[in-house]
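#structure-requests
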Amino acid sequence: MECIVSRPLEIGDVLRPGGINTTEHQTQVGTEFDIQPQSKTVGILTWRDADYKYPLTKEFVLLVRRLYPTTEFHFNDKQILNDKENKNFVTPEIDHDNHLHVMFK
């Protein structure tokens, strides 16, 4: 099995503690961030692209949940949404085909 640390994690839109107004997010409390789905290449892609790696993205989600059990995600990958291990805390959201939105409680 390929290890998640074999390629860089691409993190963006880390929200500041205390909040900030942004046009991209409804909540801005400093406990959320966006991350690119795992793939064979670095760069923006969606869960539909050939380079997207479902197993590594699922591994990332499960790892975060093991460390922070109340964490929730927005992401539109139908495999992750239908997976019995993920379906209670990963929900679809408009414009979340190309990144996971991670929300710490």
